[in-house]
Amino acid sequence: MLSADWTSPAADRPIDATVALPGSKSLTNRFLVLAARAGGVSRLRAPLRSRDTLLMAEALRRLGAHVEDVDGDDWLVTPGEISGEASIDCGLAGTVMRFVPPLAAMARGAVHFDGDPHARTRPMGPALAALRTLGVDIDDDGRGALPFTIRGTGRVRGGSVTIDASASSQFISALLLSGAHYDDGVTIHHDGKPVPSQPHIEMTVEALRDAGADVDDSDANTWRVEPGPLNPLDVQVEPDLSNAAPFLAAALVTKGRVTVPGWPQHTTQAGDDIRDVLDEMGADVHLARDGLTVSAPDGFSGVDLDLHDASELTPVVAALAALAEGPTIIRGVAHIRGHETDRLAALAQELGALGADVTETEDGLHIIPRPLSPTVFHTYADHRMVMAGALIGLAVPGVVIEDPGTVAKTLPTFTRLWADMLGERAAEGRSA
Ligand SMILES: O=C(O)C1=C[C@@H](OP(=O)(O)O)[C@@H](O)[C@H](O)C1
Ligand SMILES: C=C(OP(=O)(O)O)C(=O)O
């Protein structure tokens, strides 16, 4: 069911705000998967609690792990024997539909996977083919997509596999995250157009090494995980830097200033690239010990960008481009047609409906800013479309966001944080 429409607030003055973001989806879901088969109890400190991570926690519980809330904010994960005869709801989460099957392959018995209607169109074919090569028995309807059933025998042979991961880096991360538990470990060769979202693979490799795995990523397009036990984790989850993007972008749109505390000095999160993007657009971007501050007193301009490594930033950057001075070209993101929705088509349609001149290319968008008029901004069950629409709404009073609740995929508190950033709650409090 769709949530009620939301008229996103316009900004009547430059924003000057500090916005603390919850934890990273990508880190939380990697840590959960690693913890579910580690050699002891793991603690995740301040993990993200959103639809994608709650689905991941529930998937792991159904496979026999215990994931418990402790001390308010943390998760304790106790591994269990991987059990079969389970049914997993992937929602629309790429991380659940890609990371859990290689783990479920070690169950004794059948594990059935399905998800939201659109999840059934997201690419899975190369991931299923790779698992079969590694010795896993899978029933599907031949479309290379959800739903499917994995018929585990309690162990996976593993070994060497060649995969075309040009549709998603998650195919590689998924095999790496479980490969240490396979009899022969796993060696993955990518063969195809360049793999997108490379920082996400680096994140996987770093998380595995932190858990004691022996990983070789020294050759391009080849990754090897040796078989062996993983250590339990005790990890602090960094704030989600991709979810920080719309808030930082709000500083540009309103010629204001936004600080995100806790911005890591070193990170593998692809969202860190937002610093370079905003800098190129003309913002002042300052990373200090206490956080990242972005300000843009003099406005901002369009850019020519390759977002292949940080493609999840595309919706917010495209919205920003529609409000910039001069045209923007976004390249290198053909694969985001397979994200939560066909993001290139959705952005061209919705920014176009507002009045922007947007052309879809084979691998991106050309955006020429024009005067925009308010309209209903459709979100296609895509959390990042909600964020993109809200950004436009700052500058175009009266933009109505359809189904804002879909933002709960990664940031259930988005509309509250957005209002807080604009000072609305303070204003409401005064008038009450
Ligand atoms: O591994 C991950 O956590 C992710 C990898 C990327 O997927 P793609 O490689 O499919 O773009 C990214 O876009 C997604 O939001 C999260
Ligand atoms: C592409 C995204 O998510 P997923 O993990 O479902 O692929 C995203 O968060 O932008």
TrEMBL record:
Pathway: Metabolic intermediate biosynthesis; chorismate biosynthesis; chorismate from D-erythrose 4-phosphate and phosphoenolpyruvate: step 6/7. The active site is at 312 (proton acceptor). It catalyses: 3-phosphoshikimate + phosphoenolpyruvate = 5-O-(1-carboxyvinyl)-3-phosphoshikimate + phosphate. One of its GO terms (cellular component) is cytoplasm. One of its GO terms (biological process) is amino acid biosynthetic process. Keywords: Amino-acid biosynthesis, Aromatic amino acid biosynthesis, Cytoplasm, Transferase. Pfam families: EPSP_synthase (PF00275). One of its GO terms (molecular function) is 3-phosphoshikimate 1-carboxyvinyltransferase activity. 3-phosphoshikimate binds at residues 25-26, 30, 168-170, 197, 312, 339. It is an enzyme of class 2 (transferase). Its EC number is 2.5.1.19. InterPro entries: Enolpyruvate_Tfrase_dom, Enolpyruvate_Tfrase_sf, EPSP_synthase, EPSP_synthase_CS, RNA3'P_cycl/enolpyr_Trfase_a/b. Phosphoenolpyruvate binds at residues 25, 94, 122, 170, 343, 384, 409. Its main location: cytoplasm. Belongs to the EPSP synthase family. Catalyzes the transfer of the enolpyruvyl moiety of phosphoenolpyruvate (PEP) to the 5-hydroxyl of shikimate-3-phosphate (S3P) to produce enolpyruvyl shikimate-3-phosphate and inorganic phosphate. Monomer. This is 3-phosphoshikimate 1-carboxyvinyltransferase. It comes from Knoellia sinensis KCTC 19936.
